[in-house]
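Researcher: Here's a chain I'd like modeled. Treat it as a single chain, no partners, no ligands.
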Amino acid sequence: MVRGIRGATCITVDEEQQILQETAALALEMAEKNGLEPEEIVSVIISTTTDISSGFPAKAVRSMAGWEYVPVMCTHEMDVPGSLPLCIRLLMHANTTKTQKEIRHVYKNEAVRLRPDLTGAAAEKEEAR
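Model: Modeled as a single isolated chain. Structure tokens:
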């Protein structure tokens, strides 16, 4: 079964090195928390807020060992006033036997504000059930 796994992180400044580092760390954590190998990942869609323009986050994923053949695409988020700035979001599609409820979404840095119900104590409480 193909499942979608969400993740997001924020950078502190629009610099290519930070974009690549944070994107790679997020993708790896998403795969690890869900017990996935690159061969099980169908595709990754990456979006950024429009204030990120110094580099392609997809380059980080394509550069990781074993991930060279994972289809990756970048796009921009809608530019909504008041939205979280300098944010990178990932939607990872993966072949897994996990149920929707067992999927572990990953939100890091300031992006934890996007889905507090899926981060920290709330997620741990749900896992314990």
